[in-house]
Amino acid sequence: MVALGPADARRGPDGMIPVPAKRTVRELLEAMLINSDNVACDKLLALLGGPGAVDARMRAIGIDGITIRHSELDISAGRGDNTATPAAMVALLTKIGRRQVGLSPASATLLEDVLLRVMTGPRRLKGDLPPRTPVAHKTGTSETRDGKTDATNDVGLVTLPNGHRAAVAVFVHASPADVATRERTIANIARAAYDEFSAAAP
Predict the structure, then answer these.
(1) What does the alpha-carbon distance between residue 85 and residue 144 come to, in Å, rounded to a whole number?
(2) Which end of the chain is more exposed for a tag (fewer CB within 10 A), N or C?
(3) How does DSSP assign 96-165, residue by residue?
(4) Is 100:167 a contact under the CB 8 Å cutoff?
């Protein structure tokens, strides 16, 4: 069990873990991924040794293009941001799908199970795919400032009809469009990838 106190309170989406509270590491992981819970995210970062420890892990498994320097508390206070490229996210997803990120078999299975249960962004990668297509994914969204939303993202492993999976990452950056348009753009690109990979030879 992990104790959460008043200092762990964070801004973020509705439904975040209320503090004070106690949660298991698994419950924190599920809250962070399934509901984009910033309380859970920062507590897990602290348990791991801070953002720098996770950034170093990315380098250790051969991922460039993902930079993790700040907690959610830092980001909400305007003290910086973490960055990633779509290509780097595809590389990470590919390693996750091939179980090349250094997790035990049980932990790798748990990670994919949790990603399949993500509740955020149902109109993004999943939005235009055939019903019940398995998508192990994670969204990312920033606040809208001066009429532009810096990040409307979704990345994931999309299962194709032949059982293979395609790693797809779509980032909509600095967009003045409304959320429906941004999410429809992600859905259209994901469907194009799904159709292209489904038609390709194994």
Answers:
(1) 20
(2) C
(3) HHTT-SS--HHHHHHHHHHHHT--S-TTTTTTTSPTT--EEEEEEE--EETTEEEEEEEEEEEEPTTS-E
(4) no
What the block records as the tokens of 169 is 């990452």
C-alpha dihedral, 16 to 19 to 22 to 26, nearest 10°: 20
Chain-centroid distance of CA 54 in Å reads 14
Kindly give, in sequence order, each residue whose CB lies less than 8 Å from that of residue 107, ignoring residues fewer than 6 positions away.
Answer: none
- Is the pLDDT score of 202 beyond 70? no
Distance CA 136, CA 167 (A): 10
Q: Which residue has the tokens 């990838």?
A: 193
Helix, strand or coil, per DSSP, at residue 182 = helix
Please give the Cα distance from 111 to 108 (Å, whole number): 5
- Interval 137-155 mean pLDDT: 96
Cβ-based burial of 5 (10 A; exposed 0-12, middle 13-18, buried ≥19) = exposed
* Alpha carbon of residue 109 to chain centroid: 17
Tens digits of residue pLDDT in 50-101 = 999 999 999 999 999 999 999 999 999 999 999 999 999 999 999 999 999 9
